[in-house]
Request: fold
Amino acid sequence: MPEFEHLWSPIRLTLELATITTIVLLCVCTPIAWWLARSRARWKEAVATVVALPLVLPPTVLGFYLLLLLGPNGLGGPVGGLFGLRTLAFTFEGLVIGSVIYSMPFVVQPIRNAFEAMGDRPLEVASTLRASDWDAFWSVAVPLARPGFLTGAVLGFAHTVGEFGVVLMIGGNIPGETKVLSIAIYDYVETLQWTQAHILAGAMLVFSFAVILTVMLIDKRLGRVGK
Amino acid sequence: MKADRNAVEAQFKGTLGAFAIDVAFAAPGHGVTALFGPSGCGKTTVLRCMAGLTRLSGRLKIDGEVWQDDRVDGSGGTFLKTHERRLGYVFQEASLFPHLSVRDNLLYGERRAKSAEGGVSISFDDTVSMLGIAHLLDRAPLALSGGERQRVAIGRALLSRPRVLLMDEPLAALDRLTKEEILPYIEALRENVSVPIFYVSHDLGEIERLADTLVLMDRGRVRAVGPLAEIEADPNLPLLRAPEAAVTLDARVVGVDRQYGLTSLAISGGTLIVPGRERDVGAHCRVRISASDVAFVRAPVAETSILNCLPVRVVSVAAPNGDDAQINLVVALGEDGGGAHIVARVTRKSRDALGLEPGVSIYVQIKSVALLT
Reply:
């Protein structure tokens, strides 16, 4: 059933992209958020600003620079070469990199806030109980910052699912490779295929609602257990 | 360790913001050493330096183990990180981990302490029963009262097998009733756990009940270090000049008069009689004699309602403070003046009438004696 495949492919691709991006985001953003929350360096706010830039830049501006970065004449050439690619632009890998940068502020900020809200005391207590810094980070800081991680993961995931401009700039529109949901919907509308657009848009609406509601309920439940 | 009066040596110097600290003291390796002084005198900072939570330059030796030793010339030296120091720390707010149950809070330090390390070795069950927290183990910290939380925090610190226990105003955040509820547990700690305790407080009542040794601090410096009663009875120190001047003495129950409900207590240089019959002969306790409860008589009075009349020798008479009507005296118990020092406050008129001068032998009547523990 080719029609179904047409609809399913962008959904699957979007979920894959959002999942991988969220995982990468958590790995990358946690140390950044920790540093921003704990460091006393004067220039840390400059770093925070760079991280926050995607909030205000038009996606096309970000996409433009990413395109240059990921292209064969940018980092994309040599780095892509490691994976046997000529460029990272118009590839799934490129989309992941773009999405990570685009969604970073949405993940860094809640995690940083959670680390900051925790204050120094729990870590001081842990250190008086023989926990090394690394130990205390995992046994105290991460569990206490759990709501921040959850919020960051949901926002990162949702934001990646809803991404359009950056994908359009750096991803092109390659079915099965870079043609994600938002682009597919755009395509269907452009070509007046309203039914397909309806199905995808409606499914996305329901899905987004379900994800966010689930996470909120989980968070509430976990929050109560912790108290 | 027990016999060593200088088992703990500390010396810190530096500035935090605009506040300068320059302290040095030695303390015994047992009992409660109180860091006492007005708010903002730097006592909490000293405790944090001992824990390695705040870093000032200096030296710290705990029972032969060097935790910090900054060379004067700045070359190398030693500075153990907090988690490498075998200490227990009780913060003013209990600071239990909210994501762990009471049991897991208690076990957090125990799991990380290596049993071969020495230090306090008290079992989980003993700790829990000593602090009366057995019924709380499966609760979450946020479901506990302030007093319960602080008891769990004390247990958690003990179970990490510390060689020194640091307590930073553990009762300051609690209301009066809760304080009274917790003090006996800290007293039990002093009796049952052979680990030196450093106790920061600005509450003289807590100090009188708990401290063996006092480190008197003022504006970032140490004014005096010594046994509590000595500091209380030192005419050059502010405690004697305070309105509530008193001495705290260790006592032992030597007799109980069941008929009248009176207990006889032996103190250095004499015997005191106090109301009460709850204690057994041989038990140790602590009494407080307030300067304003001590009166002088030339000879023992036969017929008086005051039970305690003891021979003393005057040690010192403070110079009057301006034209104050009252002056402070320090006297030593015993006809030869060989016993404990207590303090007294009399009017200048009485001093002249009785000829109270250093070296004079006379009697004191003690109107009331407070039994602290």
Notes: Residues 176-192 of chain B form the longest helix (17 residues).
